[in-house]
Please model this.
Amino acid sequence: MKRLGATIQRKSARHYLGRIFATLVSTMFSIDVYDSQCGIKMMDRAFARVAFATPFSSPWIFDVEILSRLRKLTNGCTTSIVEVPLAFWTEKPGSKIRLRSMIVVPGDLLRIRLIDRKQSQSSPD
Model:
């Protein structure tokens, strides 16, 4: 990724797979997120209580579940959720997307979306 003032070093394939995944998440959950899988998450206690109140249904993409839960907490007002881009990041050797992940993750994403829909329908507004 090229951004003035930032040094982000990763393989092109990882960047483009990440963009595809982020686009899917944004579309499926109506959250305009650039990088749902960024390893750094900061939130206040109220958000943390909701984000971690129940076990995650996916060990691979729990970040998406966190965003879904926080969106519900804010009644869909995602302006309470802010992405702060990293100024420096380097891909670590051995950190790679494996074939098994690419097979499991789409099913996990659909399961999280179904949970999200079910909870949205059952919660009073």
Notes: The two ends are 40 Å apart (CA to CA). The CA atoms of residues 21 and 106 lie 9 Å apart. The mean pLDDT is 81. The longest helix spans residues 99-122.
